[in-house]
User: Fold these one by one.
Assistant:
Number 1:
Amino acid sequence: MPHDDPFEHTGMSPSGHPYRPDQDGPLTRFQAMEIAIRELLIEKGVTTEAEIAAAIAYMDTRSPAGGARVVARAWTDPEFRARLLADGSAAVLEMGFPIEALKLIVVENTPRLHNVVVCTLCSCYPRNLLGLPPDWYKQRAYRSRVVREPRRVLAEFGLTLPEGIQVRVHDSTADQRYIVLPMRPEGTEGWSEEDLAALVTRDCMIGVAVPRRPQ
Amino acid sequence: MSGIDKSWHDMGGEAAGPIERTEHDYALWEKRVDALYTIASGKGIFTVDALRRVLEEMGPEAFETMSYYERWVEAINRNLIAAGVYSPAELATKMAEVEARGDEYAAASLDRSDG
């Protein structure tokens, strides 16, 4: 059936990103390689279709909404915040987020310090809390420049920091991942965790943006 | 960073142009590549370090000319062959079979488990 696909692969996706023609154009050599590897692994009993489908379903459950819940909890529960800063891996495991790298380090923004995360070597990212990284995180320009001229890079993202605020850049590795705990916006006293979490975007937790209270 | 002997993939501090804030929703084939890595590494067939070793050996040209998951599927492939899971000949035969099924991904991949 040609039209049973639930998605129209044109225009903007439900998450507001343009579709790329990955699956709509002619079959590429690397797509054929993926299919071939998958089938060989199934035929040889290394994995099953169900196992692959489950891995993708799990991947789809992880998104910045997870990290936002952690941040909102840290803003409203000082004891949790203390545990989160002391041992990020253990604290997020409390909330049901499995540990995927050896160590998760939570870096806290303050009125005098702003943190930003990169992986200069590759694409290491706190996937358990944010899902898969955006393209720009994996590309040369961000990886090269954010460690050299972070203020200029942040300004390109629309975040201009006063000179009085120190900027600290954290370089991730396969074994050590970082996530930023942003500052809670003023004027949000008494807000529910759910409403607070809605202010926390992915970019806030990478450190290229800060949460803002809706005007 | 001139004068420091480092590998091409160690990009921190290099000169580079403006950040292109591109992003896209990952396609099914890309998620499957990611899943193949997760499953193979989870079963101890190869490690994240082995994946990265191949990605780094592929060099800067691959970085510029191939997409992220194109590089990944190639690196996964080389690791699976190195681990003896299948041979290059088996892969070639299977790829020819896949390509003969159709000109588009959905037709070629059968998609038995995805409705």
Note: Residues 34 and 69 of chain B are 8 Å apart (CA to CA).
Number 2:
Amino acid sequence: MTKVRISDDALAVACGADAVAAACEAAGCSVERVSSWGMHWLEPLVEVDGIGWGPVRVEDVPQILPGTGSGAATRSGGVEGHGRDRVPSRGLVEPPVPLHQPAAGPLPRSGEALYVGPIAEHPFIARQQRLTFARAGRTRPLSLDDYEATGGWAGLRRALALAPDEVVGEVTRSGLRGRGGAGFPAGIKWQTVAAATGARKYVVCNADEGDSGTFADRMLMEGDPFALIEGMAIAAHAVGAQQGYVYVRSEYPHAIAKLSAAIELAAARIAPFRIELRIGAGAYVCGEETSLLNSLEGKRGEVRAKPPLPAVAGLFGCPTVVNNVLTLAAVPHILAEGGAEAYAALGTGRSRGTTAVQLAGNVRHGGLFEIAFGITLGELVHDIGGGTASGRPVKAVQVGGPLGAYVHPDRFDLPFDYEAFAAADALVGHGGVVVFDDSADMAQMARFAMQFCAVESCGKCTPCRIGSTRGAELIDRIRLGARGLDAVASLPQMHNAAKVPRSRAEDIALLQDLCETMRFGSLCALGGFTPYPVLSALKHWPEDFA
Amino acid sequence: MDRTERLARIVADHAFREGPLLPILHDVQHAFGGIDREAEAAIAEALNLGRAEVHGVVSFYPDFRDAPDPRPEVQLCRAEACQTRGVEALVPAAQAAAGERVRLTSVYCLGLCSAGPAARRGGEVFARLDEAGVVRLIEEA
């Protein structure tokens, strides 16, 4: 019986993988649902003996299965009509379908358009340095056997044989930094929690991946949930925590289901440490660590002022490690024999190891690309991403989610590196790269950033809560060229307000000033980083604001 | 089992948790379609909180409602990545298809950013939507 592997990742499912899997089963194959390779433009990707076909639709199934009896029977049924309608809709040129294919003969040529070849050798995969996503596409997400057979639990086994401070030392030596966006050295955070005193200690995994253009956390939770669990168990041993929480956003039903099943399956393995899954409730700001802690405690997801750091007084006032999914999932590899040195050997400057770049938006070859820090933005967008999906020129890329700067193609020489991005007034963030073609209106995007901040603000601090609304109004005023005197400013009691309308230049200066206030006056990254997309759009594409 | 008993059962189910309020609210909303004044008061009583505290939490999170909405819900992702792939052009057709029958809401990211425009209908997700696709998934809701 032919064995076929198809991903059950949410993206593959959203593109029709379930129906394709059912069709393969109906054609007499045994179907194994695995994690996604991360080549999203090819999903649903069907793998037969290491050879890939994609993106496959139900009608394509008979053409790509090797000449089994049932496959051939189905093939002679619906091929002709299918071959005709597929060409225009996919925009691919393919040779006519041979109708009289011998049952055991080679694959019909019509499958050529879908032929991907040996998946592991595909340039998109071969060029990567996969550590955190080493199992992507290769294992069944909820199979403990697959996990064990691919080196699973080796890191935890070794960690448990080490003293807690040695584990912290390994993580520090690896140079691992927080992958959630802030880039804080994980080892130092763990060290702080380990040294802090408290009645209890916690390990909290921030899986509230709300940034547009990011999906690596989702893919990891859906594709390799045991790696996250193992990383949390190692962290718990290192800092002396008894209880762990994973806070997942409610928008990720597939990740919730997988992780919940995985936690149950692995419970005995990580005991006495316990992990509980908690579901968010639609608030973007809960991705901010202190807001997340409040939410876990059952409160409004309002940001807390720091200090105290969560490492000292976090969940229920106890010392708490709060790490992103990717940070924790990188740990099992680091704790395996020689892992810390191998990790530290990759990367550039103070950005060590690999980063999971997520190519998204208007990009031809979108998906997950894990590689050592140091790759340039241009290589990512053009060489790997293949430029825009629309075929139009790239106008901008937004790196690091809705709070990340818009980078102009002039700066495509920028290496993926925390410090290099910071020096260019940009953020690596969570590694999401959203590509925009030349039809994008950057002033509209700047306004969207302010509006998004206004909607998602937790309301605790004034620069974010009020600044974002005023910012959206200001951008409207700049764009519409409204030059009248503001109704409130003209009231007699407004002694300090100017009595002549502001000029366009003054409005722009005011917007820049407002952004300064938000950047330095906000309590957290939501208000503090919203100025990045706004100011970068204003700086590089002033013509869009005219 | 009447409503009061069901509520008490839900609260009791989560009593062993630390910070049980959000899991309780999720379950209450799932059971009753919304979290109304009476439910807030009962939860507050059980957790030794003020009703204002519970209401503060309910009103903070977009997922929670105070009254049931029997309409099916479709969430259309309108974040940056889906915008670059043309979701805004689909909005008028989606609104027309939804009318009053389907609750069409905007969501900011479903994590399907390389294959947008994307949408979610309960536990189902959809990607690479065009106008016909989005209209169909709303009509079938």
Note: The two ends of chain B are 30 Å apart (CA to CA).
